[in-house]
Write a structure and sequence with these properties.
It is built from 8 helices and no strands. With 240 residues, it is mostly helical. It is globular, with a radius of gyration of 17 Å.
């Protein structure tokens, strides 16, 4: 194990972290138009740069994505989109109690999503597929609850995960790599969600609270993602 995975994690996580810091620290009703512009431009730039970097290190042969890869991506992304309803298994007051609400959201949304995404990565660990996975999830989510303001949210999350996967080539599938992927999945997912909630809904919290929730959520998903990966990896071996 080298420092490659750690460096890839830092490169993929820091831009999202900086966006959360900027939006949280500069938030005020008067600054919302500027923060909206900063958010949209930042997400667009992150998507573009991540996809360029994600494809630059791969040969055309490695970028060859099979029909079964597309099929599994679509099926698991569709399952992923059902997360809109998972929170219904717990009493609604749990989602408004300070401290308890974080745990409720993490356990009913991010942890199951991490397991599903882990199964997807175990089956199809190819470049660009994470971005496609999140785009399909976004389209399914928007079909259920249309909100065009969130359209860039989905590919930004997926593109940053693709960036980590591409930059850490050669270290895939060991325990540290998987934990860091899960940590990145949960931490940037929470951070991006918080950015959008602040910009579009005014749902602001102090920076230490937002950062702490992002990292704690990442640790939880870092433990959950390898469980799903084992399922996907075994399914891939059985399909060959």
């Amino acid at each position: 194990m080298t420092m490659k995975s750690y460096m890839a994690f830092i490169v993929a996580f820091v831009p999202c972290l900086l966006l959360l810091i900027v939006v949280t620290q500069l938030y005020s009703p008067e600054n919302l138009p500027i923060l909206l512009l900063v958010n949209m431009m930042s997400c667009s730039l992150l998507i573009a740069l991540s996809l360029v970097c994600s494809t630059a290190g791969f040969s055309f042969r490695e970028l060859d994505i099979s029909t079964i890869d597309y099929t599994v991506t679509a099926l698991l992304a569709a399952l992923f989109s059902t997360e809109l309803f998972w929170g219904m298994i717990l009493p609604s007051p749990l989602f408004i109690i300070p401290g308890i609400s974080f745990l409720a959201v993490s356990l009913t949304s991010y942890l199951p999503k991490a397991i599903i995404y882990g199964a997807f990565i175990g089956f199809s660990p190819k470049p660009l597929l994470s971005t496609l996975f999140f785009i399909i999830w976004g389209l399914a989510s928007e079909a259920l609850f249309f909100n065009p303001a969130w359209l860039l949210y989905y590919p930004t999350w997926g593109a940053l995960l693709d960036l980590y996967i591409s930059l850490s080539q050669g270290e895939e599938h060991n325990k540290t790599w998987l934990f860091l992927l899960g940590l990145l999945f949960g931490s940037i997912g929470w951070a991006l969600t918080k950015v959008y909630m602040v910009v579009f809904w005014g749902n602001w919290h102090p920076l230490p609270l937002s950062l702490g929730a992002s990292l704690l959520n990442g640790i939880l998903t870092g433990l959950g993602l390898p469980l799903g990966w084992k399922i996907g990896f075994k399914a891939r071996r059985m399909s060959i």
